[in-house]
Design goal:
The protein has eight helices and eleven strands. The chain is an alpha/beta fold. It has a seven-stranded mixed beta sheet, with helices on both faces. α2 links the parallel β2 and β3.
Length: 231
């Protein structure tokens, strides 16, 4: 399996001079370091880890040296996560891909809870059904229980996507095609949504509401992330 961390963005909303994944947490680790620690503890050498870099990439590469390979999104300042993920899926070795937004803080048990879903051989998005904030990516389900809509514009969302996602090796080519067709400023969720509606891609929603998980965009998010027991 491949694991990809999307860490190319400028993270301007948090207002830090460094890349958002390098934001220090209360326990002294950066967001990126806690992600890598959890990934290493859960999957060990069984996962090929790569980080998509762009903004101040030297800092990210120094922080993750020895724990991941790196993929450069040279147009990080002109594109959104759809193009960073596209590059990662094209360059990662064959196999399934679990990917994380580089600003997600979560407790250790969350990744272990995803093992059954990974083993089931179905692409999925991890979701929190306990929260449906207006500015977050939301989802709805079709009649068979698979994701139907996935975007910030969803009305009547059943929960929030938390920024941890999985695509099977079988579905990778379809997702690549739809990410390639995305506009430069689209989030990767747009590629998932069009692959669902236009190509019939089946994507499950895996509920991780029982586990602490915060995507850090603003200062209050960082406060909530620091309240989690992430060690």
């Amino acid at each position: 399996m491949n694991v990809v961390i999307l860490a190319a963005g400028m993270g301007t909303r948090l207002g830090r001079p460094h890349p958002k994944p390098l934001t220090p947490l209360a326990d002294g680790r950066s967001i990126l370091r806690q992600q890598l620690d959890h990934l290493l503890a859960t999957f060990g050498a069984n996962a090929y880890r790569s980080v998509v870099v762009g903004f101040k990439m030297d800092l990210i590469m120094e922080a993750a040296a020895g724990d991941a390979a790196f993929i450069y999104n040279e147009v990080y300042d002109q594109t959104n996560t759809s193009k960073s993920l596209l590059k990662a899926l094209r360059l990662a070795p064959p196999g399934d891909v679990l990917w994380l937004n580089g600003d997600v803080v979560f407790v250790p048990g969350l990744l272990d809870s995803l093992r059954p879903a990974i083993g089931a051989g179905t692409s999925f998005v991890a979701v929190n059904t306990a929260s449906v904030a207006e500015e977050e990516v939301k989802y709805t389900l079709d009649g068979d229980g698979y994701v139907k809509e996935l975007s910030k514009e969803v009305v009547g969302g059943l929960g929030e996507a938390v920024g941890i996602n999985f695509v099977t090796d079988h579905d990778r080519a379809t997702l690549v095609d739809h990410l390639d067709a995305c506009d430069d400023n689209d989030y990767f969720e747009r590629g998932i949504e069009t692959a669902i509606s236009e190509a019939g891609l089946r994507v499950a929603a895996v509920d991780i509401s029982a586990f602490g998980c915060v995507e850090v965009d603003f200062e209050p998010d960082l406060d909530r992330a620091n309240a989690l027991k992430i060690q």
